[in-house]
Amino acid sequence: MSQYILSCCSTVDLSQELLDSRNVRTIGLHYYLDGVEHIDDMGKTLPMKEFYAAMAGGAETTTAQINVEEYRHFFGEFLKQGLDVIHVTLSSGLSGSYNSARIAAEFLADEYPDRKLLIVDSLGASSGSGMIVTELADMRDNGATIDELYDWAQEHKLEQHHWFFSTDLTFFVKGGRITKAAGWFGTALRICPVLNMDHLGRLIPRFKMRGKQNALKEVVRQMEEHAKGGNQYSGYCYISHSDRLEDAQTLASMIEKAFPHLCNGVQIFDIGPTIGSHTGPGTVALFFWGDKRIN
After folding, report:
1. Nearest-10 crossing angle of helices 97-111, 68-79
2. Would you give the distance in Å from CA 221 to the centre of its chain?
3. 131 Cβ partners below 8 Å, 6+ apart?
4. Cα–chain-centroid distance for residue 266?
């Protein structure tokens, strides 16, 4: 058994069953639903169907990062057992959680000088950062050291591609990403914005596709253009969605037809409440390994 812990934030948007089977520990961010605080436990206490139904019904949602003290307690429980830790956070381009984890690690270095606590800024989100965690779990299980995991993540994390589209502009308006007027016209014209993650870990609008089918085709085209090996791509492929399982399944079928050599086919996950608080229902996201994201 490896003498180190692999952990991540709840925003990896993988299933709890998968994380448990891979022996990956998690710490939850916070979200507020109509002012009531919840810990993001990936739908265990509040099923995702209920969460998105509440949002669709007008419930107000906000989120809060993990603070330094929470990270100190989480990491400290492992360090005092004599275990090293490598932890993968949500992108620093979206949240201050990475900075809180880094500060906690600096405090704990004085308390546990013989232990290693390595923090990876995923520069990713949702199942994209989850795919990084999956790769690290594979390496750990094949005997890699904690330093080898950290070095690999630092070298390859910008090769993790994220492509999103949304069929509902309501929460783009509420979040201030587009104006009310643009949202009204976009809805009337059936505009589906397509976004991706840039080299700084920020979500950037790239295209305005008219109609869901065109948005689906565009994210497939982006994978054809950027995936390692093109249509011979044989790595992991994940899709996450916010209450749009049918659209996610349609995209998965398109991807599996275009990329017949995928590792374990396409795996589909829910977008959890932290990311979902900002996307709202209606988002579908595609993740794969490809060329390096550059400015």
Report:
1. 40
2. 21
3. 124, 160, 236, 238, 287, 289
4. 16
pLDDT surpassing 70 at residue 183:
no
Mean pLDDT of 254-274: 96
Note the pLDDT tens digit of each residue in 2-61. Answer: 589 999 999 999 999 999 999 999 999 999 999 999 999 999 999 999 999 999 999 999
CB 121 within 8 A of CB 7: no
Q: 84-89 and 117-121: which strand pairing? A: parallel
Amino acid at 90: L
Strand partners, 209: 192
How far from each other are the two terminal CA atoms of the chain, in whole angstroms? 40
> How many residues are recorded in the chain?
295
H-run or E-run covering 9: strand 4-9
Do residues 193 and 172 touch, judged by C-beta distance below 8 A? yes
The alpha carbon of 150 is separated from its chain's Cα centroid by a whole number of angstroms, namely 18
Whether residue 176 is predicted with pLDDT greater than 60 in this model: the reply is no
* Nearest-angstrom CA–CA distance, 89 and 106: 16
| Cα distance between residue 25 and residue 9, in whole Å | 9
Residues 6+ apart with CB under 8 A from 174: 280
Average pLDDT on 109-114 reads 96
> What mean pLDDT is predicted for residues 65-87?
97
